[in-house]
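Case study 2.
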Amino acid sequence: MRAVVRFFIAVFIGVGTTLAWQSYGDEAKEMVKTGAPSLAWLLPGSTRSPRDDQVSTAAIVTSAEVAQQLKPFALDLSNVRQRIDQLATRLEQLAASQEKMAQGLAILPALEQDVRQKLSPPPQPRTAAPRRTPQSAGQLDSPAQPAR
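Prediction:
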């Protein structure tokens, strides 16, 4: 009895494998080729179908179309690159003018001091003011006495 069960199990496995191979044969071949390339020689030879030719022709047409679509982007990229170079040149010019301005500003305080020295009048000699004595200061602070 066990032998008969083993026989039917083997037959079911064989039938299932055959049906699976018919349904998914191409996909299975690709899986074997990618998963175990050393076993690819065991697979039956690959035959090219007209469908494969259509796919490759479509791929070539698609590549040409993509290249055609990418041309404007390449031109735009070239224009952007050119403008970036122009901006870099302008930035260098701006940095050079800032450096000149910074040098001019560094000289400005020295020039300002020189101009102030030339424009200021020579120092006047100080004359000593007469000193007031506390008595005379007191007399000035007191209210005026009425005349008699």
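Residues 1-47 form one domain.
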